[in-house]
Structure formats: structure tokens, C-alpha cells
Amino acid sequence: MIRPITPTLDRVAGPADLKALGDAELRRLADEVRAEVISAVSETGGHLGSSLGVVELSVAIHAVFNTPHDKLVWDVGHQCYPHKILTGRRDRIRTLRQGGGLSGFTKRSESPYDPFGAAHSSTSISAALGFAVGRDMGQATGDAIAVIGDGSISAGMAYEALNNAGHEGRRLFVILNDNEMSIAPPVGAMSKYLSGLYASPQGAALEKMAEGFEAALPGPLRERARRARQLVTGLPGGQGTLFEELGFDYIGPVDGHDLTQLLPVLRAARARATGPVLIHVCTVKGKGYAPAESSADKYHGVSKFDVASGAQAKSAPNAPAYTKVFGQALTDAAARDSSIVAVTAAMPSGTGLDIMAKRFPARVFDVGIAEQHGVTFAAGMAASGLKPFCAIYSTFLQRGYDQVVHDVALQGLPVRFAIDRAGLVGADGATHAGSFDVAYLANLPGFVVMAAADEAELMHMVETAAAHDAGPIAFRYPRGEGVGVEMPERGQVLEIGKGRVVKEGTGVALLSFGAHLAETLAAAEELEARGVSVTVADARFAKPLDMDLIRQLAAHHAALVTVEQGATGGFGAHVLHAMAAEGLLDRGLAVRTMTLPDAFIDHDSPAKMYAAAGLTARDIARTALGAMGVVDGGFGALRA
């Protein structure tokens, strides 16, 4: 692998070194950082387009502000690779998203230059305001700078923070990174509003910046600043901008790839701001790398790739991806039932709903990064008589939990929740793990909670959800490929609350919930090699539980082990509670529950993450042996 030549970057060990560079050198530095990002991500994979879009902005912020004393908060954090290169982590940048390496997001434990961790969107302004209050109350912190994208600022939490920050009136910098391209094209009124600023005479010309800001600049910089200056003091008819109405001084739009604009604007803002300031910076996602700029998704998330051609390395799939199976199954169901609609929160391709959108565009709704709204929007459609499927990753559905409880469950509305990325997800790490959805859904009255053991089961669960009108229903499935089972032409409606026996034995029962069934069957093979007869069952439902199945397993086996890809308090806890209520634990039955540990597991390959979680086939077999009173000695089983 040929590494880029980076003489200016080689002189930078941290942000303090940027203070010794002239503006022309900072421009060269930006070019070299861009080359370094492209080279590194070609080896590791990751979020390339968003990081390339903020190279100049990263250089400018660290050149102007005094990080880490000043607190720089990146919204989401998936665009932080240039920031990491500039803050002493260049030597580890080729460990991005690898086991034991750098996180693909900002992470407090990784560096003092990451004052606030992130991976979900729209949190930066709230956190930055918190730092500003800390500063004003005597804490050892300086200015607070939030960098938020045009997609992220569409979420309700960002507006709540803007409103509060404007009311507080504290010195605070919010940089709106407007690339007009988040993961999917930004939707809604905010995107139109920002785009409209370009068409206005003030926005297009960049003619005027506030007098006070310009006056603060040294003489040699004033002429350069005039090219970039603009303070939008009002819209036609005398109305102030949205941001001004919220209490912010608004500067922009500014070319986010032109350091002759960025540097004077940031310097002036830092010199003169007394209250909250919003700086509107326009960037291009994927900037400076032609394959990314020309790609529909701007290389938002890439696998390893060839720098010269941009071709990504893709392993040949052995089985269809769960996401694709869901998207196709839902599209097929929608073709038979015109009342089926679908909702996504800025992830049409990530959830597979792009498949349905191509065939039935009027029945797929992308609400933007607004999970709370998306859930209640789906609830409203359900109340109208439609059959909404709300397709949201497990980690992002957490953001709409109040709406799940109050607007869906409490009213018994038949919203169908398709929960992608259930379980551990690999390189994105703990922030994106789907660990908690079973626990946070199965405790809600009237909810049906399913988990697909394989891709064929996922097809059945799509049909089951479509047919279920008695209340809310959810089904979870993992990231990645299925296990290669034979696929039906069409899914079948499952009986609610009924599991299935996959393999019959007599000694120990392994009750699996969800996509760990294949690992559970592998554990059964290990146990049978040791002479233990094993029953393997697929629960299918965490709520309602199949109590007939559980009673049979309890009555005819010496031990019962539950296995799930979720946190404690989920499926296994519900099984234990139900068994205790019926007295099934009173007759000497040994029961063990295997869940994710009470800890956040750092990024690695999914296989290594499940090994760290103690959920391999060997772990399951060892737990089963222990429940039967057998100590696993490694080279054979020894009776305890």
C-alpha cells in the first residue's frame, strides 16, 4: 500500500502545532489530511464521505480554537477521522473500527480531544450548552463548539437545544455543516429552508459580514474577510432568520472548503461573540475524492477499497442479507395489501425499505432523523386503519421509546416494528449494538415481541406482523447475512406465542430466542459428542411466551438453558419469572439464562464480540454441562 506524501502533516503532533502554521500552510495541511483519510479508510473501511466533507473545517477549528480546553463536540461523530488525525491519533488511524483500535466515533475514554462521545445524532448542541454552563459556573473549560449536520439539525432534540441556548444567551458556537446530503437526501422543511438561503441575494453573494466581526480583524485580513462576510439580518418582509428568532447571531453561508473564508469567520466569531452564534458552513460530502463525490451515497459507509478506482472489496455472500430479505418480503406483502405502509428515519437503504420505495413510492415515508416523530406518525396511521411497518434499528428505536410506550402501547395501536441490527453489530461498536430492545419492549402490556432465528423465519414474521391487528408487534433480526436455510416462496402466518422444537433429546434443553439458534445447534453437537442428549427449541416469541413448550421442556429434562442476543432483563428474565409463577422451579430443575453481559462491548468483529460476551457454542455447551453438575475440564467432561 503506497502511503501519501505528507510533509506538512508530518509536522503536526497535535492542534498546538497548527498555531505555528500560516494560512497557506494550513491549506496544504488540509490537502494532506484528506489524502491521509482516504488512504487510511481504504485499509479499514468506515465513514469516508462525511469525513472528507469536513477536512478544511476540522483544520480551521483546531487552528482557531484552543482545544482541548475549548470543547469541540461533533454531532454523531462519524465525520471525526480528520479530527482524530489532528489530535494525536494519526499513528493509530489505520486501526479504525478494528478490534482494540480507534473507535469510528468520538469517545471520551479515547482522548481528551473527544470531550463528549457520540454516534447517535442531534446531541451536540445540548452537550455544548452543558459545557458552556459549566464554564460560566467556574469549571475549567473554555469555549464550546458544536458541529452539526443539516440532516441532524432536523431532529427535535436539536431544536429543543437551540431554543434553550437562545434563551440562555450564553456564548456558544454552533457550526451547521450543510452538505445537503446526509445518509439519505435530507427531507422536510429544514432542508428546503437551508437550500433557499443559497438562492437569496444575500446568501448567493456573500457580500456582507457583521460590522463588529470585521472590525475585530487585523488590517491585512479585512479585505480577505470581505469576500466571506455575511450576517443574514433578515428575510424578505423584515422577518429574521429562524436562528435569529431563536436568539442566535447567524453568519453564513460560508464555503466550508475555502480556508480563506473559514479562518477569518471563525477568528472573528471567536474574538467578538458574546452570546450564541450559528455559523452556516456549506460543504460537499466526499469532497476531494471523485468516486465518493459521484456516488449516490457519497461513500457514507464503505468497506476496504482501492484508492485508484474506488472499487470496494466485497466478500461473496453465502446467503441473503436479513435486511434485503425483510425489504423484499415487505414489498411482496404490500403488493397484496394496499393498506401496508412503511416508515423509516433517514435509513431507507439501511433498513431495506428502498426496495419497497422503488415499487410503491407513495407508501414509504422517510421522516428524516426523527425517530420520535416516526413512531407517533406510524401510530397515527395505524389509528386511521392503515398497517404501518416502522423500520428502525434497535439502537435508534431507543430514541423513540416514550412514543412507543405512550402513543403506541398505551393505545393498543397495531404498529409493526421491524427492528434491524439486533444483537452485536461489529465495527460500529457499543453505540450501535441492539442489546436492549427485547427488555424495553417485552415489558409493555399488549406488545407481541418476536425474534427471527434465520432468514426464512424473518419472512414468516413479516407475514405474521402484517396479519396482526390486535395491538403492537415487533420482530428483531441481526445485521449481515442469513444462515443459508431454504427459503419459502412466501412467508406463513405464525400462531402468536408458539415456538417450535428443532431437535429432540432427553438430557438438557436449550431454548434459543432469535438469531443465536445456529450457535445453539452447534453447542448441541458439542454436547452430544460428550454423550449428552439435547433438545433444541426456538422460542420465536419473548411475549407472549409459549408456556406449553416451556412446561414440556421443564418436565422432561434435567436442565434448561435459555440463549439470546440481548441484555439481561429480556427473554431469559421473562422465562424465569413465568416459571417461578407456575412453580416450575420448585422441583429441582436447573435453569440458566445466557445473555449479553452487564457491560458495553467495544467494537470488533461480531464473532469476537460474542466470544467476549461468553455466547459462543462452547460457552453454551459449558453452561449446559455446569447446569447438569458437570465440570468442563477442557480435555473431557469431569463429574463434579
Description:
By secondary structure, the protein is α/β, with parallel strands linked by helices. It folds into 3 domains: 9-294, Rossmann fold, CATH 3.40.50.970; 322-476, Thiamin diphosphate (ThDP)-binding fold, Pyr/PP domains (Rossmann fold), CATH 3.40.50; 500-639, 3-Layer(aba) Sandwich (Rossmann fold). It is globular, with a radius of gyration of 27 Å. α1 packs across α4, α5 (124-136) packs parallel to α6 (156-168) and α14 packs parallel to α16 (353-359). The strands form 4 sheets. The chain has a 7-stranded mixed β-sheet, sandwiched between helices. A 5-stranded parallel β-sheet has the order 1-2-3-5-4, sandwiched between helices. A 5-stranded mixed β-sheet has the order 12-14-13-16-17, sandwiched between helices. The model is unreliable at 197-214, 221-238 and 635-640 (pLDDT under 50).
What is the straight-line distance between the termini?
55 Å
Strand content: 5-15%
Q: What is the number of strand segments? A: 19
Which segments are poorly predicted (pLDDT under 50) over 5 or more consecutive residues? 197-214, 221-238, 635-640
Helix content: 25-40%
Q: Work out the count of structural domains.
A: 3
| Strand line-up in the sheet with most strands | 7-6-8-9-11-10-15
Mean pLDDT: 89
Largest sheet: 7 strands, mixed
Q: What is the alpha-carbon Rg in Å?
A: 27 Å
Q: Assign the CATH superfamily of the largest domain.
A: Thiamin diphosphate (ThDP)-binding fold, Pyr/PP domains
What is the level 1 CATH name of the largest domain? Answer: Alpha Beta
- DSSP helix count? 26
CATH topology of the largest domain: Rossmann fold
Identify the overall geometry. Answer: globular
Structural class assignment = alpha/beta
**CATH architecture name of the largest domain:** 3-Layer(aba) Sandwich
